[in-house]
Specification:
five-stranded antiparallel beta sheet; mainly beta; five-stranded mixed beta sheet; 388 residues
Length: 388
């Protein structure tokens, strides 16, 4: 835990909508970006290129800057930002998309995407283009939108509309943008440059339960959760390859794919499936907080640091073997977790209603924590280029 003086210093972000913490090495050359909601298209929530923040240097994190000017009494917590080429992109419920220098917080541009309250996704930034999806939950025009903007200027390049709401963030891979269509039960694919529609999935008879969370893409296959099932599609054509019905319940925040395994959280049941066939390897009851999911270590899942990491609703932090579901360890954490965890360079980060914490990814030992405003309860942390 921080000293009393350190906590007082960090409280300056209480009125802010976003706080950025920087370590003593934060001015070094930028190396590892965080370009989309779960780091990359595979959805592992793991930045393997982070080298500045370590188990030792994370203890020196202190407040660097904050994004203010948003009326939090009207607009609640917003999704996690994206970082690319030294710029942080933030979509807020006040209808704006903000671009700021990631190190200094200097204003680069701000674009108004909507004139009324709207629900935005986490942006994705690939090849100089920012993609953000949103819809209007309180408006008669509740149809979703997907907009592509020039990352340097904020100029709109193209906009696509959907039949209903949108759920989850746009995932970009192999020159295509993939977006879940919420209760209309479709997945959509667009050309990343032109916005030309490429395919729409066939949908599933889910009783009104549509695509939930963020899809994942690897080796030419797109994986997603729709209703009660995990579904795989050919990412180029949209042809359905397999569908595996899971326990009744809506999907969790995301699916993730690593090697020959697909990981899925379907309303408290964490499952591992074969990526090529959808065959369930194992499934266990691990209730996680609403809108929260898991992080997966890189490399062999046989090692503790490379297992599946998550926090359950009882406040227990677990690291389990991806092959069997056996726990490497499970222990109570020091803060009331409500977000998905993030892994970077052997450190696991997680947020709560009032605090953010860092843990040793192997042992689970606490390394650092800081007070945060209550508005952070829904947005998981991201780590890029020595900054949190």
């Amino acid at each position: 835990m921080l000293s009393t003086s350190s906590k007082t210093f960090l409280r300056v972000c209480l009125a802010a909508a976003s706080c950025i913490f920087v370590g003593t090495a934060g001015a070094n050359t930028l190396k590892g970006d965080w370009p989309m909601v779960n780091f990359d298209a595979r959805g592992l929530r793991n930045n393997p290129y982070e080298t500045i923040l370590t188990k030792d240097s994370v203890k020196s994190l202190q407040l660097a800057w904050q994004l203010d000017g948003i009326n939090l009494s009207l607009y609640g917590p917003f999704p996690p930002p994206a970082v690319a080429s030294g710029v942080i992109y933030v979509a807020a419920e006040d209808g704006h998309l903000y671009a700021r220098d990631a190190v200094t917080g200097h204003r680069l541009w701000t674009v108004k995407l909507a004139t009324t309250y709207y629900s935005p996704s986490s942006p994705s930034v690939v090849n100089g283009i920012v993609y953000v999806s949103y819809w209007f939950p309180t408006s008669p025009d509740s149809k979703g939108r997907l907009r592509a903007l020039n990352a340097a200027t904020g100029a709109t390049l193209w906009t696509a509309s959907f039949e209903g709401s949108v759920v989850g963030s746009p995932i970009v891979a192999n020159g295509r943008v993939y977006q879940g269509g919420g209760k209309d039960s479709y997945l959509y694919a667009f050309d990343a440059r032109s916005g030309t529609p490429l395919w729409k999935s066939d949908g599933l008879p889910t009783g009104g339960a549509g695509y939930y969370g963020n899809p994942a893409v690897a080796k030419g296959i797109l994986y997603s959760i729709v209703g009660f099932s995990v579904v795989a599609y050919d990412s180029a054509t949209g042809n359905k390859l397999w569908s595996q019905q899971m326990r009744p319940g809506y999907g969790g925040e995301s699916v993730a794919v690593q090697g020959n395994n697909v990981y899925a959280n379907t309303e408290g049941y964490l499952s591992v499936l074969q990526a090529s066939t959808g065959t369930v390897e194992w499934s266990g009851n691990f209730p996680m907080p609403d809108n929260a999911s898991f992080a997966v270590g890189e490399g062999s899942i046989q090692a503790a640091r490379n297992g599946i990491h998550f926090f359950d609703t009882s406040g227990v932090y677990s690291n389990i073997d991806g092959r069997t579901g056996r726990a490497f360890y499970a222990q109570e954490n020091q803060i009331g977790v409500q977000t998905s965890p993030t892994i970077a360079n052997g450190v696991l980060y997680v947020g709560s209603p009032a605090e953010i914490g860092a843990y040793d990814v192997v042992s689970g030992a606490p390394l650092w924590s800081a007070l945060l405003p209550e508005s952070f309860t829904e947005a998981p942390p991201i780590v890029a280029n020595g900054m949190l």
